[in-house]
TrEMBL record:
Presence of keyword Metal-binding: no
Organism superkingdom: Bacteria
Assigned protein family: Belongs to the class-I aminoacyl-tRNA synthetase family.
Keywords, ordered alphabetically: Aminoacyl-tRNA synthetase, ATP-binding, Cytoplasm, Ligase, Nucleotide-binding, Protein biosynthesis
Enzyme class: ligase
Binding site for L-tryptophan: D140
Entry protein name: Tryptophan--tRNA ligase
Amino acids binding ATP: Q16, A17, T18, G25, N26, G152, E153, D154, I191, K200, M201, S202, K203, S204
SUPFAM superfamilies documented for this protein: Nucleotidylyl transferase (SSF52374)
Subunit structure: Homodimer.
Pfam families linked to this entry: tRNA-synt_1b
Residue positions of motif 'KMSKS' region: 200-204
Organism from which the protein derives: Brevibacterium salitolerans
InterPro entries in the cross-refs: aa-tRNA-synth_Ic, Rossmann-like_a/b/a_fold, Trp-tRNA-ligase, Trp-tRNA-ligase_bac-type, Trp-tRNA_synthetase
Amino acid sequence: MTEPAAHRPRSLSGIQATSDSLHLGNYIGALQQFVEQQDTHDAFFFIANQHAITVDQDPAELRARTLRTAAQFIGAGLDPARSTIFVQSHIPAHNQLGWVLECTTGLGEAQRMTQFKDKSAKNEHVSLGLLTYPALMAADILLYQTDVVPVGEDQRQHLELTRNLAERFNHRYGKAFTVPEPQILKATAKIYDLQDPTAKMSKSAKTPAGRIDILDEPKALAKKIKSAVTDAGTEIAFDREAKPGVSNLLTIYSSLSGRPVEEIVAEFEGRMYGHLKVALAELAVEALTPLRERTLELLDDPAELERVLHRGADAAEAVAGTTIADVYDKVGFLRR
Ligand code: ATP
Ligand code: MG
């Protein structure tokens, strides 16, 4: 018999609604872990539409992308009966706690976040929200008394801040929060851009050529993999420093096939980069086609998706409501 979900450690994570399709980095670094955790954890996964507006978004596009992201969660294997799937803005307690945590965070602390530095350098107009985003992210996590947060490497620093804020608050006002642990899988925590294998694959990257979107048409997907930048030399070997391009392809191959990198390197011994690309293109098409088809099918029935998100919001609100009531009492807000 499986253990009731409520007795398991709680897992929570989110993905921003910032593109029409998630990319392979989101899938391998985050979503695949979400799917695994729904059998071992009390799982909460949300679509971060509020984080999305830290940079400019078109309203109609943001609404559509919120549903598209939900469809991809389910298309990739999240089961609404086993995971609580919800939209960040449906739960006002994220903002309520976000404000309290903004007042718990030092200005210098927020300014030190490398993601803030990177994204503010890329955008002409830098919103205050881009700076305070990590406090809202801490609220997303701490509201749910989360034990583990499955994320990619780029979120490590934000998770560290979340832990510090939880400890700081608990110390000052009495225990309100579980201090969460990040779950960052070493091998797959950072998938790189296929055209620039030293940069993270990103939804907000300038050109889509180096990004594999999980909803790419099979032909386009295969083409992108076949035109991936590789390295000097001819030998297929895993070496992040000397062969970043090939190492990235090997990481993706390993993750999609569930086989260790060494085994793949051995299989391709004496063969050329082109062989690896052709095999990977085939594997990726095979792995992503069912996901893509399920997602497109789900998108044909937006009313059903909205019902799933509505039920998710009800379940999430029950947990979040308890935490925010306790936090409001602890900071000294007069009850209504
Ligand atoms: P944006 O460019 O809009 O920030 P993003 O591609 O970074 O988009 P997010 O929604 O910010 O995607 O991140 C969702 C999850 O995917 C996070 O857990 C993040 O760590 C993970 N992730 C993002 N990019 C990668 C990547 N290249 N490799 C592994 N994990 C990644
Ligand atoms: Mg990001």
